[in-house]
Amino acid sequence: MNTQDMIKPDPGEATFTIDAFHRGRFHVVQPRNEGHRSGIDAMLLASLVAADRPVSVADLGSGAGAAGLAVASRLGDARVLLIEKFPVMADYARKTIALPENAFLADRVNVVEADVTLTGKARVAAGLKDEVHDHVIMNPPFNHAGDRRTPDNLKAEAHALTEGLFEAWMKTAGAIMKPGGQLSLIARPQSIADILAACGKRFGGIEITPVHPRPGEDATRILVTAIKGSRARLLFRSPLVVHGADGHTFLAEVDDLNNGRTAYRRRGKTADRSKFA
Predict the structure, then answer these.
(1) If you ran DSSP here, which 8-state letter would residue 275 be given?
(2) How far is Cα 224 from Cα 274, in angstroms, rounded to an integer?
(3) pLDDT at 15 (0 to 100)
(4) For 125-178, what is each residue's pLDDT tens digit?
(5) Mean pLDDT of the chain
(6) Strand 221-228 to strand 240-241: parallel, antiparallel, or no bridges (unpaired)?
C-alpha cells in the first residue's frame, strides 16, 4: 500500500496495529480504536526537513512518532526528540522505537512525555531545553469547536483546536530551536491567519504550500516552513496535488515524499546561524 501497510498483531492482541511506512523501512505501533492514527499528513510533514549534515529535530505533539521516525528513517544523521503529553500515546511511541524493525534508528530517537504548552522553568524541567534543535516539526490539533466531535475522547482532545493554541506551540518551538532553525508544520488552510499571527516576529521567511487532494479540488492542507529570526518575505509556493486524474494513485512527487525518497526543500535559503550568534 502507498501510505502504510497494516500488519495484524497476534489474535489475542486487538488494541493496536503495527503499520509499515516508507515501503516497510520503518514501522509504527498505533492504537487500533482510539487516539490519532498517522498517515500521509505525517509523511508530508517529515518531508519538510531537509539536511545535508547531522541535525537535531523535535516533533511537538508526536503521537506514536510517525513523523519523527520518518525523518530519522530518511536522514541517517538526524537525532529526533518525540514530545507527547498523552501517556498512552507516549507509550505507543516507546513501543514503536523498541520494535526490531526500527533497530537501525532506535538509538537516535527519544521520547519526552510533556505538555507542549509548558513555559519557562516548567518547560525546561520537563526536558524541553532552550535553543538545542535545528528543526521543530508539528501537526497541531485542527478541529474547531463547530466541527463534528468524534466519540473517541482521546482523539477528540488530541484534535481540539483551542484558542491561542498556535501561539503556545509556536512559543515553545521558538524557545527550543536554535537561532536560524527551521519550523515546519502541516495544518488546515482555515488556520492560516492564526499561524501567521503566531509566527509574529519569531519566524520569518515563511513559505506556504497548499495541498490539494485532486486536480480541481480545494486545498485541504497547507505545508508551512519558516526560519527563526529571519526577515525574509512570505512566499506562496505552487500547489501540491496528491492524487492524479483517477482520484486514487499518488502523483510521482507526492509518492516520493510519502515514501521518504526525497525531501520537500524550501525555495529560500536557510538563515546563516552566524548572524544570530
Answers:
(1) G
(2) 24
(3) 87
(4) 999 999 999 999 999 996 555 545 545 455 545 444 467 899 999 999 999 999
(5) 88
(6) unpaired
Query: Does the predicted model carry a pTM greater than 0.90?
Result: no
pLDDT reported for residue 135? 98
Burial class (CB in 10 A: 0-12, 13-18, 19+), 152: middle
Task: Give me the residue spans of the domains in the chain.
Answer: 5-269
**Helix and strand counts by DSSP (H, E) for the chain:** 8, 12
| CATH dotted code for 5-269 | 3.40.50.150
Q: What is d(CA 92, CA 183) in angstroms, rounded to the nearest whole number? A: 25
- In Å, what is the CA distance from 46 to each residue of 122, 125, 129? 28, 27, 22
- The three cell numbers locating residue 45: 510533514
Q: DSSP letters of 142-197?
A: -B-TTSPPPS-HHHHHHHB--TTHHHHHHHHHHHHEEEEEEEEEEE-GGGHHHHHH
Residue with cell string 541535525? 55
Find out whether 112 and 127 touch, Cβ atoms under 8 Å: yes
Task: Specify the range with the lowest mean pLDDT, choosing from 80-89, 186-195, 241-250.
Answer: 241-250
C-alpha to C-alpha distance for 211 and 47, rounded to whole angstroms: 14
Q: Which long-range contacts (CB under 8 A, 24 or more apart) does 119-127 make?
A: 119/171, 119/172, 123/172, 123/175, 123/176
- Examine the pLDDT at 3 and tell me if it is beyond 50: no
Q: What is the dihedral of CA 246, 211, 115, 122, to 10 degrees?
A: 160
